[in-house]
Amino acid sequence: MPGTLELEREQEFSILLVDDDQDWLTETVEFLQDQGLEVVDTARTQEEADSRLRVKDYDAVLADVELQPTQVHGRPSERGDDWLLERVGQIPETAIKAAVTADPKRIRDSDALEENGIRVAVKALDSEKLLFEEIIGEALKRRHRIGLRKRIGEDMIQRAADLFLEWINSRLDKASKTIWVGARKLSLLDIAEEVAGQTDVGLRFVEMFVSHMRLRIGLKNSSSPE
Amino acid sequence: MTVIMRIYVAAGFDELTTLMLGWLAKLVSGESKRLFGEDASRAEFLSNIENMPSDNLLVVFYGHGTSSALLTAAHLGSVPVDQDKSHLCVAKDLEELGRVEVFAYCCSSSLDLGNSIREKNYGRFVGYRGELLFSTAPFEANAFERPLIDVVTKLGESGGVYDEAVEDLLQGYEMEHERWLAGEYSREDRSMMICMFLEEHMRLLDRDIGRSG
């Protein structure tokens, strides 16, 4: 049974694009911002990219494989895919990481990329579009959750979620899946896991619970003797 | 006298929609076309509206929906939504018709499909603006059947979505909610959850039904 909820405040989804092609950077930033993503940082060199990584944990990092080599402290710098492999430890494990290229044949070590959770996205083809849809999808879900939390109120969420989990805990029926959320069939245990996991469904239940408690309190107050 | 074609649709292909089919089957009135179970196919639906005796259509639908479509089982419809469901009806199917009135007991269809019918068909649409929640547990499930009985019966008898349909539906929900909040079912184990779900139904019920005919 999921226990007490430990909530972290979510920040807006952030992306770092690393590419020396300014046109591609400009186009991609505009596209992402049109889709509602606000935090889109860019870097044209590895030095710039390194300094970005030092100050922020990004939710997605995309680096061009053909990043032009530059001299960094007197030695040639790495290609984009090699740079990502070197920096993977400095990027949150949950972040989307991708080596972007116009020609997938230029990828030298696709096994190493895969082992480190780095995808390959081909510019101007469907796979790149899919990647952006996934990034945009994740970003919008994050924004939805942030909106839910604002509506519930950050100070209310922890207590409400704990109370709701207590209610569920006292009524657990692991075998029974009888709750439908849209077309999804769930049990109370499933809902408890959603609440503890801070998913959209979980936060929706917390919001419904808070709203219901406010209704009950309103009813209690209205029936109190004057 | 205006001739109205009434079509009642409920595909019944999973636990929830099978339950909903049972609910709707009890409410079909008069001379109406029933598209239940395997008959709830897109082909059958389109065939019926193509051969309508008049320009006026009333559709009563119980099942799953999206913002732009009423859904049926995967093998009965057209565009797949997922492995279990596909499109039964979208706005384009109804564009050439005269007056269209729809009562849709499903998620979200009042958003795009409902707006289209209200604006393009100058028709009426009673539906919901988001994802609905249900319990299919014995006894609890009745909480989601009862609020609609009077309204659906009345609109079937009158042949259309009458002016007070949403108010009557809200009243049905309020009465059911009261049973679970403070009335005869308030001591049921999951009464609080049933109340929460009913409150969500009421919140998501679209108050805009469109213009009168």
**First-last Cα distance of chain B:** 13 Å
How many individual helices of chain A?
8
Radius of gyration of chain A: 23 Å
Q: Count the strands of chain B?
A: 8
Average of per-residue pLDDT values of chain B: 93
Label the structural class of chain B: alpha/beta
Spans of chain A of 5+ residues with little confidence (pLDDT < 50)? Answer: 1-7
Spatial gap, N to C terminus of chain A: 43 Å
- Coarse shape of chain B: globular
Radius of gyration of chain B: 16 Å
Residue share in β-strands of chain A: 15-25%
Order of helices and strands of chain B: EHEHEEEHEHEEHHH
* Percent of sequence in beta strands of chain B: 15-25%
Task: Give the spatial strand order of the biggest sheet of chain B.
Answer: 2-1-3-6-7
Order of helices and strands of chain A: EHEHEEEHEHEHHEEHH
Which descriptors would you attach to this protein?
heterodimer; A: 226 residues; alpha/beta; 8 helices; 9 strands; 50% helix; disordered N terminus; B: 213 residues; 5-stranded parallel beta sheet; two-stranded antiparallel sheet; 7 helices; 8 strands
Task: Note down, in words, how this protein is organized.
The complex is a heterodimer of chains A (226) and B (213). Chain A is an alpha/beta fold and 226 residues long. Chain A has helices at 22-34, 46-55, 80-87, 110-115, 126-152, 154-169, 188-196, 200-222, and strands spanning 14-18, 39-43, 60-64, 71-72, 75-76, 96-101, 118-122, 179-181, 184-186. In chain A, the strands form three sheets. Chain A has a five-stranded parallel sheet, with helices on both faces. A two-stranded antiparallel ribbon of chain A has the order 4-5. In chain A, a hairpin with a 2-residue loop joins strand 4 (71-72) and strand 5. In chain A, helix 7 (188-196) packs across helix 8. Chain A starts with 13 loop residues before the first strand and ends with a helix. With 213 residues, chain B is an alpha/beta fold. In chain B, the strands form two sheets. Chain B has a five-stranded parallel sheet. A two-stranded antiparallel sheet of chain B has the order 4-5. In chain B, strand 6, helix 4 (112-119) and strand 7 form a beta-alpha-beta unit. The longest helix of chain B is centred in the C-terminal third of the chain and has 17 residues, at 165-181. Chain B is globular. Chain B starts with a strand and ends in a 9-residue tail after the last helix. At the A-B interface, strand 8 and helix 8 of A face strand 8 and helix 7 of B.
